[in-house]
Sequence to fold (197 residues):
Amino acid sequence: MSTASLADLLAQADADGHDHSATEKATGLLHVHNHATGSIVWFPTWRKFRETTDWSEAVAGITAELDAASAPADQAGAAIVAADLESLLDQAARSGNANVFVQENLTRHLTRTWAVGDAVAKATNKDLFTSGPTPAVFAGYPYEVYAQDGGVFATALWNDLIDARRNRALAEEAARKALKPVSRKAMKNAARKAARR
Fold:
């Protein structure tokens, strides 16, 4: 079933140039294109990821994490994806360049999340997801992991990673304004108002 490594497919997509439609057909990859910056991130569909040599290794790694957990596989898998997402968003918020961060981390997070779903399915003796309702491991997850072959997941996560840095900057600005020193005159006025009450 394994055809090529994910790195080989991504390198082929990067080398193919500007005909993104032809590249998607030739490689089975999808892409997110930020027209404002010109950056492109290629990623596999969840189906294509299962065909790569990386898939079995990723699933085996997650299976080891599930085996080490004390919770049932569905719960342990849900905890893994939740912790991974929280960590990813925190790192995105702290990154110096959101676009570079997305390019370096989006595909890795997508494939790890799909590997968790597949490892949980194997651990619970269920068939791998192909269609139908989203598996229970993703019940509380904020993204549609399998919609449009993963394209919905990638686009929504891309936006949230870009927004994470901006949201952190806004929160820091609000905190700075809240800590602004109060003038003596304002303090005296506040004391007078409090004394009148």
Q: What stands out?
A: DSSP finds eight helices and two strands in the chain. Strands lie at 29-34, 39-44.
